[in-house]
Amino acid sequence: MATLDLYTLAWEHFRPGSSPVDWCEGNYLISGNIAEFVNTISNFLFLLFPPVLMYLFKEYGRFVTQGIHLLWALLIIVGLSSMYFHATLSLIGQLLDELAILWVFMAAYSLFCPKKYFPKFCRSNRRTFGLLMFTCAIIATGLSVWKPIVNAFVLMAMGVPTMVMLYTELKRVQDQRVYRLGLRSTAVWGIAVFCWVNDRLFCDIWSAISFPYLHGFWHVFIFIAAYTLLVVYAYLYVESELPQRQPLLKYWPVNEFEFGIPFISIRNPGKEFKNSI
């Protein structure tokens, strides 16, 4: 009987509407099969851009670190998880969505966090720091299952040290294109946070003007902010730890157009760089 109750409880978490989180968009208004239609389809950039970024960063993955491709793959998982969550509003969907974001943060910190921010016991060793981030991710995963209602706010807070480090690092950047990309990324991140907070806390106001879709705009803006920030940090990592590679920020499809897709080119590849992180 106890086993049956356990299975029943587990399957209950897959039930549509089992999540305690419900965003401003009305449920099942556009489609009878999708709870939050706009919030679901607005994740399209998470599926569309990462394959392009994997192609553009082939050189980076070969001569700097293959871990960059893990980040792009994790963004796809974030998009798929978010689509599943908003389509069903299930607790499992919520956890998948939030845990995918958590692992993006931890993987990005492991790869690109400047060594001067490492704890002293890591002794500027990126492998040790990566193991620390992996351990933190495991612990945070367990805590997120225990208290899922606070996950979204914790994840939002994790963006603060990312932006503080960016501000500090941009002050030493000499390449003005990188500096401008960092500023644009910060601005888009700010717009994304505005959308998230307003959808979460001021739903009644936006519903009164028949526009309960700010969370959908959050998906669009936060993807743009996330991937461009990763590009900036990818540049900063090479510049500080592998300067002999001579990183160069470029844009695709037209390099002179700074609102294209940014990527990092390696001007002095040398030998292939072996990095397991």
In short:
The protein is mainly alpha-helical and 277 residues long. The chain has helices at 2-12, 37-41, 44-56, 58-63, 67-88, 91-112, 126-146, 151-170, 176-201, 203-208, 214-241; strands spanning 247-252, 261-266.
Characterization of this structure:
- With 277 residues, the protein is mostly helical.
- The protein has a single domain (36-266), classed as Up-down Bundle (Rhopdopsin 7-helix transmembrane proteins).
- It has eleven helices and two strands.
- The protein has helices at 2-12, 37-41, 44-56, 58-63, 67-88, 91-112, 126-146, 151-170, 176-201, 203-208, 214-241, and strands spanning 247-252, 261-266.
- Strands 1-2 form a two-stranded antiparallel sheet.
- A hairpin with an 8-residue loop joins strand 1 (247-252) and strand 2.
- The protein starts with a helix and ends in an 11-residue tail after the last strand.
- Hydrolyzes the sphingolipid ceramide into sphingosine and free fatty acid.
Q: Quickly give the CATH architecture.
A: Up-down Bundle
Q: How many structural domains does the protein architecture include?
A: 1
- How is the CATH topology named? Rhopdopsin 7-helix transmembrane proteins
Integer-rounded radius of gyration: 20 Å
Task: Determine and state the CATH class.
Answer: Mainly Alpha
Molecular shape: globular
Strands in their spatial order, largest beta sheet: 1-2
Distance between the termini: 46 Å
Helix-strand string: HHHHHHHHHHHEE
Summed up, the helix count is: 11
Main sheet summary: 2 strands, antiparallel
Average of per-residue pLDDT values = 91
Cofactor: Zn(2+)
GO cellular component, one term: membrane
Organism: Stomoxys calcitrans (Stable fly)
Membrane topology: Multi-pass membrane protein
